[in-house]
Amino acid sequence: MNYPKLKRFSHHLQVSFSRLNIICRCLYKLYAPDALKQRRNINRCKISDSSILALLIWQASLGVESQRRFCEKLGNLSHSRFNRRARMLLPLIYLIRHGLNEEVELSGDILIIDSFPVPVCQPIRNRRAKIFRSYADIGYKATKKIYYYGFKVHAIVSDDGYLLDYIVTKASVHDAKETVELITNAHPDNRYLLGDEGYLGKNLHQRLEQMGYTLWIPYRKNMKNAQKHNKHYLMALRRTIESDFSLLSYYNAENNRARSLAGFQERLEVAILAYNMAYCLERFN
C-alpha cells in the first residue's frame, strides 16, 4: 500500500445564497423524479422546491439548530409549511447524495470507518426520555466519557474527507456489527479500510477479506507486536475522521433537534449533503 501525501479539502460551504440557489436548481433538474416535479398544485407554490432545498442547506451551513428560529429570521416563511415541504424533499436529497457518490472519483486509496453519537436529550434525562422510545437507547460516548440517550451514526469516509455512506442504529450497537452492511451498501472501489480499536476481531477481518477488503486497525498497547504494527502514518490518517465528524457537527449532524423519524432523517441527510457539497465545490470548483 502506497502512502502518498493527500490534500484534504475544507468542508465549510463558502458560497452566497444566490449561487447556492442556482446549484440546487441544477441538482433539482437532474435528480428530481417526475412524481415530485409534476405533483398536484405545484404551480401554486410561492417558493420552488429547489429554493426550499437551498434554504435547508443554507440553514445547515449557518449552524442554526432550530428550524423555527431560522424561519423567524426569514420573516415571511411559515415554519409548519416549511417543515412539511422539507420532509417532502427527503427522497430527492437521498437521490442527490447518491448521485454525487457516483460522480465523485476519490483521489486516495484508503477509506476510514468510524461512528459518532447523536444524543436526543440531555444526559440527566436518559432514563425518562420518551422520544424515539422504540428506536433509540442508551450508549456510551467515549470521547467525553458519558452515557447518552439517542442514536449512533456509522459512517465510511474517504481519506481526503468525502463521506460515502452511513447507517443509523441505536446508541448501544457496537461499531463492528454494522461494518459489513455499511461496506455492502457503499460498495466502494477502494479496498483498504482503516478503523479504531472498536473493530478488533478475527471474524470481522475474515468476512471483509472474503468481500475483497483489507481492514487495518491499531493494536492496543498491551497487545503483542503493538509497537511494530502501529504505524504512525496510518494512525494519523485514521484520526482525520475525527476532524470530519467535528465538521459534520457544525452542520448539526450531531445536534439533531427533530422530533419525528422523518424529520430526524431529513436533517441528517441535509447535514451530510451540505458537507459533501462543500467538498465538491472546493475540489472541482
State the gist of this model:
The chain is α/β, with parallel strands linked by helices.
Shape: globular
Roughly what is the average pLDDT, rounded to an integer?
87
Can you identify the CATH class of the largest domain?
Answer: Alpha Beta
What's the CATH topology label of the largest domain?
Nucleotidyltransferase, domain 5
> CATH architecture of the largest domain, please?
2-Layer Sandwich
* Largest pleated sheet: 6 strands, mixed
Structural class: alpha/beta
List low-pLDDT spans: 1-5
Overall domain count: 2
Structure description:
The chain is an alpha/beta fold and 285 residues long. The protein has 2 domains: 17-98; 107-250, Nucleotidyltransferase, domain 5. Helices cover 45% and strands 15% of the residues. It has 11 helices and 6 strands. Strands 1, 2, 3, 4, 5 and 6 form a 6-stranded mixed β-sheet that branches. Helix 1 (17-31) packs across helix 3. The radius of gyration is 20 Å and the shape is globular. The two termini are 30 Å apart.
Secondary-structure topology with pairs:
Layout: H1 17-31, H2 34-37, H3 49-62, H4 67-74, H5 79-88, H6 90-103, E1 110-119, E2 137-141, E3 146-158, E4 163-170, H7 179-186, E5 192-194, H8 202-210, E6 214-216, H9 226-229, H10 232-250, H11 261-284
Parallel strand pairs: 1-5, 5-6
Antiparallel strand pairs: 1-3, 2-3, 3-4
Organism: Lactobacillus amylovorus subsp. animalium
Protein name: IS982 family transposase
Pfam families: DDE_Tnp_1 (PF01609)
